[in-house]
Amino acid sequence: MPSESACDKAQEKSVPVIPSVDRILRSTEMQDVVVAHGRKATTFIVREIIADFRNRVLSGEETVVDFRSFKIAERAAKRLSELAAPSLKPVLNLTGTVLHTNLGRAPLPSEAIEAIRQVASGASNLEYNLSQGCRGYRDCHVSDLICQLTGAEAACVVNNNAAAVLLVLNTLAHNREGILSRGELVEIGGTFRIPDIMERAGVKLCEVGTTNRTHQRDYESAINENTALIMKVHTSNFEMQGFTASVNETCLSKTAHDNGLPLVVDLGSGALIDLSPYGLPKETTVFDTLLCGVDIVTFSSDKLLGGPQAGIIAGRADLIEKINANPIKRAVRSDKLTIAALSAVLKLYFDPDRLAARLPALRLLTRSYEDIFKIAEQIQPLVAESLKGIASVKIIDCKSQIGSGALPTNTLRSAGLAIKPIINGSLGEGRATKLLAGFAAHFRCLTMPVIGNLRNGSLLLDLRSLETPEQLIIQLPELCDKLGADK
Ligand SMILES: *Cc1c(COP(=O)(O)O)cnc(C)c1O
């Protein structure tokens, strides 16, 4: 073969005869595809595949001379099934971070899923007062429950806690000043920064104190006629140690109230109950926070609370009334599915004895090391056997995190698997890293993707959140095929 450039080749190549789209659609092998996916979608995909075929022939990538051997029906069916599959799907969270923001945070209890199912398919009394036969309020399905659990006078819900903070600030301090300690000017995951939210809420930030120390006198001397509120933000995702000082809620509420100002606290991961009896680290509850004299608290319902994504605002009735009257409330309100789920989750809290068994977030967080280790022992031989010659599989001790910024420095003892690909011969560090990344990618591409962590040349799977080991075991043949193909 004389050497020639790809361009010369392309010019010489003649594209095999391609039947018309209409003819392809009428062909016998295409009929099942049309029935399964509809004429419109199939036509679209067939056009796409023909264009692809033509390009590949012209570039020399495709060497078939007969279009029939291109198996268009098979390709169309595969492509259409891929398109029909949901993009958002369940994964196995084996990262060790139980409330993982990127993986959807709290898993919902069956009671909440049933509540969603009940209202999803038809009409509901979302904003309809059944006893009076008139307009009702969507928040009333959860507000009384929140009040009972937190001791608040009133409460409302919005789309998430970021929206709650924005709404509270905009309602109570628009065009005025909010005082905040420099130690609490925090960023919570990428796009949520307290100073930015304040600015967008139309509130002038008045920073007081220093990064490590803020005193009551700092707040007092910052108060002026334009001050609208004092704010405190839970520094969720980090902990400061050493020479530090901050003003607690009780002292700060005194300062605020002496000056006729409300004290607003963004609790972040708001725990509804004391978690220490469950063996978890102590986190201040919403109830305790309000008891300190705080006027408004905001917190997420999909973090420690273990419910669907929402932001809860609880506190003084007169302030909640103003918040509800702000047009932004309408823009950030919760939908009916969330309200249904949240109501079901809140009701579980009225039976604390069964809470850890019924609320998956709490169940996973309180799972004993022994229980997790048993799962590790059960699946290690199976995983090792199917990855024989491909990877070594060891049981390891690991440390789970609560996640979502809750109690970031406290870890929970857990067990998992360290899966290390077998490398023949010696590889440079770069190649080994790349190989491991490719290895982990196969786990992520399973029917039910498996997400772990890469550490010390291994893929670590923390088994705390694996309640049904079969979900992993059943995928071992698929995994084996994927990994084997690389060999
Ligand atoms: C998580 C968090 C937020 C944001 O809450 P979302 O529910 O994710 O919107 C705001 N403030 C604090 C302190 C947080 O921990």
Structural commentary:
This protein has 21 helices and 17 strands. It has 487 residues and is α/β, with parallel strands linked by helices. The chain folds into three domains: 4-84, no CATH class; 92-100 and 363-486, Alpha-Beta Complex (Aspartate Aminotransferase, domain 1), CATH 3.90.1150.180; 110-358, 3-Layer(aba) Sandwich (Aspartate Aminotransferase, domain 2), CATH 3.40.640.10. A hairpin with a 3-residue loop joins strand 6 and strand 7. The chain starts with 5 loop residues before the first helix and ends with a helix. The model is unreliable at 1-11 (pLDDT under 50). The chain binds pyridoxal-5'-phosphate. Pyridoxal-5'-phosphate is lined by residues 160-162, 165, 188, 192, 233-234, 236, 266, 268-269, 300, 311, 404-405.
Entry summary:
The chain has helices at 6-12, 21-26, 31-37, 39-58, 72-84, 110-120, 140-150, 161-173, 194-200, 216-222, 249-258, 286-291, 317-325, 327-331, 336-348, 352-358, 360-365, 369-386, 429-444, 470-473, 476-486, and strands at 92-93, 128-129, 134-135, 154-158, 177-181, 187-188, 192-193, 204-208, 227-233, 263-268, 296-300, 311-315, 391-403, 406-421, 450-451, 453-455, 458-462.
List its salient traits.
single chain; alpha/beta; Aspartate Aminotransferase, domain 1; binds pyridoxal-5'-phosphate; 18% strand; 487 residues; disordered N terminus
